[in-house]
Amino acid sequence: MKQILVFLILSLYSSVNAQNNNLYQPDLITNDLHKSNIGKVTFMNGNIPLDQYKETDFLKSFDLKYRSDLNIRVFMDNSVVNYLHQLAPELSAEKLLKMGNLQFSFYIDHQFIYKENINFGCNFGSGGNKNTSTTFRVPLTSSKGEDWWAMYMWDRFKSNGGEKVLTEGTHQLKIEIRPYIDLDGNKNIKTGNLIAEGEVKLVIKTPELTAKQIEMQQIKPNSDWKISTLPFDKKKIELLNTAIGNYSLKEITSVVVIREGKLMLEEYFNDADRNTLHDTRSATKSFTSTFMGIAIKDGYIKDENQTLNKFYDLKNFANYEPKKDSIKIKDLLKMSSAFEGSDSHSESPGNEENMYPTDNWVKFTLDLPIDKTKTNGGQWDYFTAGVVLMGDILNKSVPKGLENYAAEKLFKPLNITNYKWQYTPQNVVNTAGSLQMTSLEYAKYAQLYKNNGVWNGKQIIPADWVQKTFTKQIQIPNRDQEYYGYLFWNKTFPYNGKNYEAFYCAGNGGNEFVIFKDLPLVIIITSKAYARPYGHPQAVKIISEYLLPAILK
């Protein structure tokens, strides 16, 4: 009895001592449901506020559909920053929250599938208070347009083995949560004890499709295209439609194929149709290259070797140094300038997310420091702000501004009438993203390049500019046999033991306009899988596993 009493006193002392060592006083746990479920990950259908949440709402089973609302609510006995403090008590709260967060581990049917140390920027609780909150809710899936880090984590879990094991039938999902800290920024990870865990049974059913959803869609009249009569394997297209219909391929809105200059396939999905204006995001960047080539031909810009100091007095901007003067238009076209700007790295000063909140995107770009590790033209690094800069150069150089110039020199000759621009804070057309068009209008643009710049017998884009654009100007780091031209991408598509080279426009979400080098093919794929890890891989899959087999049978 005495031993039990000593144990209880020591346990109480240890608990009080731990609380006293907290960096922040965590929220008091007054909710009875929270008190009785500390250390649990609970599952619920949709967002049920904590003050309305009951144990009867805890899901034991859930029908997991593509559009569903599987949420978790996690009950902890401390706050995130205090858990991190236990791992590295010598660090301040500020440093802890920039070096660590929570680790999620996913198990299916008692088999480990995926683990993710979520980014330090991911927040929790009301107002994202990681200092004091002891419970939080996040959606894993949503049919309501929510945009949370947890949904992207769920997508990564699925693309890293989850989808493969979540076959039709019933499966047990288990989630475990621990704190982690990256001690030196080089993935020297220290992981703490288990904070919370929970399980739910997932019921997976393949959606039933109608014959109309599966069959190939007929091309309607008045497309402004001649219709191809060449044969192809329609069964492959039905398999494609099935994969899109049952969400094996997600958020696809259109697939258009131009073969030998004629319309072979025109299909729409997920509430899109021929008149839908698709936001293909950064596919717009390729148009900037087009306008630059036309402006050089017209003499408004000398050539792509002109340097920034011909257009701006760079000494009037922050962080001036002579290296800025030597940045060429060509460096911006190749994404290889020496600006300290990278969209691939969130900590980069020139990351596009830092640009958008500012009231002058051009000034933002020209104010950026130079990256001492870069040479102009020497290293590829995706840099949206540089394309905004080219848009400003064009807008100042061509008569009546770029919007009118684009309409007169490109859209009018191609009979492109249905489109919508986005604008910068200076009310200049945004040459870096979100020029919206219909799929058939995008197809005209891509076919123009396939025609070597000619449309209806007229040279719209100089042939030598098309050739420069379709040159492997620079290799893309960490991508095997992938290159960059003048704001066009380059890669090969595998089929039947062969690789078919193509240049293409690409935009967030899996939007791709693909122009094959040695095949008489142009393919347009539009999609709304914005920021999803499967966006571009599934565009490749559509081409390699469905369209090329249908055509090259």
Percentage of residues in DSSP E strands? 15-25%
For the largest beta-sheet, the strand count, sense and barrel status come to: 8 strands, antiparallel
Number of strands: 21
Question: By helix and strand content, what is the structural category?
Answer: alpha+beta
Q: Which spans of ≥5 residues are poorly predicted at pLDDT below 50? A: 4-19
Shape: globular
Calculate the mean pLDDT score and round it.
94
Oligomer: single chain
* Share of helical residues: 25-40%
Spatial sequence of strands, sheet with the most strands: 11-10-21-20-19-18-17-16
Describe the protein.
This protein has 553 residues and is an alpha+beta fold. Helices cover 30% and strands 22% of the residues. The protein is built from 17 helices and 21 strands. An 8-stranded antiparallel sheet has the order 11-10-21-20-19-18-17-16, with helices on both faces. Helix 7 (234-245) runs antiparallel to helix 17 (535-551) and helix 8 (284-297) packs parallel to helix 13. The protein is globular. The N and C termini lie far apart (82 Å). Residues 4-19 have low confidence and may be disordered.
